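Next up, sample data:
>
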Amino acid sequence: MAGTVSSESKTTEKAHLIYRCKKCRRIVASDENIVSHERGKGEGSFKWKKRNENTEKQLVDCTSVFAEPMKWMQTVDEGHVEEKLFCLGCNARLGYFHWADMQCSCGAWVNPAFQLHKCHLDECYI
């Protein structure tokens, strides 16, 4: 019985989600760096010119993740208010940032916004 208790009391480590550059596999963020946001109202949140006429009130999945500013984001350190974000390893474009705010594909506004596009990232669990 004592062996059973000790095996149950072992701490189980939770798998951490990390985001890597799809091109060079360099780690650019982890789940600890991600800023969550409430899901927006979908296409109803966008200007009428950007809405799709066929779909009304359709919920859209987020195509990006928003992160905290990190050391590898060189343009942030250079004092820009808004700029593209490039991978430090291969110089591939990973996203965009804007200190004021930015709208997610789900319709929610994020302020400040350091947006990383999921299509340029690989999600891995370690």
The beta strands are 17-21, 27-30, 34-35, 64-67, 82-86, 93-98, 102-103, 109-110, 113-117, 121-125. Residues 35-125 form one domain. The chain has one domain: 35-125. Residues 100 and 108 are 14 Å apart (CA to CA).
